[in-house]
Amino acid sequence: MSTVRCYDCGRSFAFPERKRCECGEPLWFDHGEVAWPDRRDPGMWRYADSLPAAAPAGVGAAAGGTPLVRAPRLDTGGVELYLKDEGQNPTGSFKDRGSALAVASARERGIDRVGTVSHGNMAMSTAACAAGAGLECTVCVPADIPEERLAHIARYGPEILRVEGEYGRLYERSLELEGVDFVNSDTPLRVAGQKTVAYEICEAFASDVPDAIVLPVSSGGQLSGIWKAILELRAAGLIDERPRLYASQASACDPIVRAFGADRREVSPIEGGETIAYSIANADPPSGNRALAALRDTDGGAVSVSDDAIRAAQRRLARKGGFRVEASSAVAYAGLERLLERGEIGAIRDVYKRQGSHSTR
Amino acid sequence: MSTVRCYDCGRSFAFPERKRCECGEPLWFDHGEVAWPDRRDPGMWRYADSLPAAAPAGVGAAAGGTPLVRAPRLDTGGVELYLKDEGQNPTGSFKDRGSALAVASARERGIDRVGTVSHGNMAMSTAACAAGAGLECTVCVPADIPEERLAHIARYGPEILRVEGEYGRLYERSLELEGVDFVNSDTPLRVAGQKTVAYEICEAFASDVPDAIVLPVSSGGQLSGIWKAILELRAAGLIDERPRLYASQASACDPIVRAFGADRREVSPIEGGETIAYSIANADPPSGNRALAALRDTDGGAVSVSDDAIRAAQRRLARKGGFRVEASSAVAYAGLERLLERGEIGAIRDVYKRQGSHSTR
Questions:
Q1: Chain B residues close to A157, C-beta within 8 Å
Q2: Of A123, A175, A246, B314, which one has the greatest count of Cβ atoms within 10 A?
Q3: Which of A173, A190, A207 is the last residue of a domain?
Q4: Is A58–B69 a contact, with Cβ atoms under 8 angstroms apart?
């Protein structure tokens, strides 16, 4: 697993020689061997044989392995719903999977310092995993970050760079910085770490698969990881069918939904508006095109939801399931409801019914 | 598992006939059959065969199964330290194990409403698990609860009773209330749920055991659960030795430490002072005597730590391990450091060294 490849044009490079493909698209690791593991390591490290680094010391060793929960009171439109509770990661978000792997890999490659561009979950997650493994960490945050959130990040002791203006462009600039191994949302390491959530979901149903996976989408990195896992599992013969992937975004900032709706192969940057789901409000998603490819390849779709719908979903998740989630997570449930209303995943209902009658389930 | 028994005088009663033993001590379920399970249910429900109810719907199904993490940068005094990250429960605390089981049992017994007396983690946890399983929930909180914390609890939609004055006595009064199945800190169901953390720890090391388990202690309910698991595992021949149990409390409110230090068999209520570890500041712990019995029986100990030591531990856990924990959790690490300073667990160091040389580890 020392080669990275472009999902689109197929060019390959030695890792970590390049950050992006010559064609401009993000890279991911070449497929390794995938198998359902016998090992019982904690969390995502059960799949260590399919990952480019071994578990790090400290909190990163606790990433992944989150529960897949049936919450029948949240079933809607005839769908038998399972929730993957990624809040049960060590710093409370799915980002820990990628951060843990990035830190583990940096450590194995003799790198002293990792970094990230984030003002939220990814900053906390990267700083925490670095602290546990004894790596230095640099976090670039916008100058106007709320003090409370800054305090959460600062607790792990990273170097914090407050960046005035042009925060959106910092992603590109970070790729050029020397001396820091930046692990932003769509780097091959982060995508490799985050694909483990789909290993876990698919293994729980194997060899059957869920009919659809609906997730909130920002940069497109997480969706890329899920797609990659599905491609790997299919190639290895571990699953027979592909779950359809559905991207859900807040209406105020939904460049991927717009591009998908217009049947484009490229996401154009938009002027994003304000939304309570600020942590997924990415007006120029670096893995946007790859996200579109994932939706097309799995015969999935994309949907936008209003802040009111997000608030209603958040409330329902707490009152009917016992799940307290941030607005950006509730976007997935709001998206599912919208897709059902529109009849876009009516077919799923039938398939779920069929699955419900399996005697082994 | 329909009989509850007094750990002290041995009297037994049909569950749920009595809340406390005639002698005044808390009760726990009679030992069931314990075995390392083959099943792979999520979290604590792996041990469902040793529990008095099956997994509930919703968030309670995701309780337990938390990672046991090596964080070598936190090793101190020659001790090889493992951290059990109970923050990775669905509502962020170990309380979910007991809440989930209590809700599951209430549901199986046809009860409509559960309740708890708490102004923090236990209130959130009980309300969340009840919501997921479709039960009503009543939460008694002190009238002066901070609004922010109240909002966290209210999100799950419980009935909230704000109680003026005498909050400390509400525990006893709640035992008499009709129509609500109160699952406070030391009820048999909560103790049964919370014992699963010790199943998980011991299974990870089996058939060896950790030399010591240091934990923060408030009511004594969690310590009781851990002790009970150890007794069960010993009786079943699954572990050969007992880990020593150490209770750590904040100096400002340490009735169990005082009683242990004075070699008393009963905990006397004290005038507790202010501490940043407010969520474990219990001046009159309902399972205090049982906690003392657990410490004695396992040849363990008890230690108090200052707020400064707690703050320093909190900082170290974040910066050296990547763990962000509330003050009351940091009390465990501060306690370990103090026990090492005092030479009280010097013997453990040697045992850990021995364990380190096992070729199978």
A1: 318-319
A2: A123
A3: A190
A4: yes
Record: contact B59-A68, CB cut-off 8 A: no
Per CB-CB distance under 8 Å, the chain B contacts of A91 are 322, 324
* CA–CA separation, A334 and A285 (whole Å): 21
Indicate which CATH number applies to the domain containing B309.
Answer: 3.40.50.1100
pLDDT score for A142: 87
Q: Is A259 on the interface with B (CB under 8 A)?
A: no
Pair (A260, A186) in one structural domain = no
Tell me which of A282-291, B157-166, B335-344 is least confident.
Answer: B157-166
CB A224 within 8 A of CB A215: no
Distance CA B212, CA B244 (A): 5
Residues 6+ apart with CB under 8 A from B7: B25, B26, B28, B224, B228, B290, B293
Q: Cβ separation of B155 and A131 shorter than 8 Å?
A: no
DSSP result, B5-73:
EETTT--EEETTT-SB-TTS-BEEEPP----------SGGGGGGGGSSSPPPSGGGGG-----EEE-GG
Q: What is the ipTM of this complex?
A: 0.89
Instruction: Name residue, tokens 């950790």.
Output: B210
Within 8 A of B87 by CB-CB distance, chain A residues are: 90
Cβ(B101)–Cβ(B197) under 8 Å? no
DSSP class of residue A132 equals H
A319 and A278 assigned to the same domain: yes
Q: Does B159 touch chain A (CB under 8 A)?
A: no
Give the pLDDT of residue B354.
33
Q: Are residues A178 and A199 located together in one domain of the fold?
A: no
Condensed to tens digits (0 to 9), the pLDDT of residues A259-308 reads 999 999 999 999 999 999 999 999 999 999 999 999 999 999 999 999 99
What percent of chain B has pLDDT above 90? 78
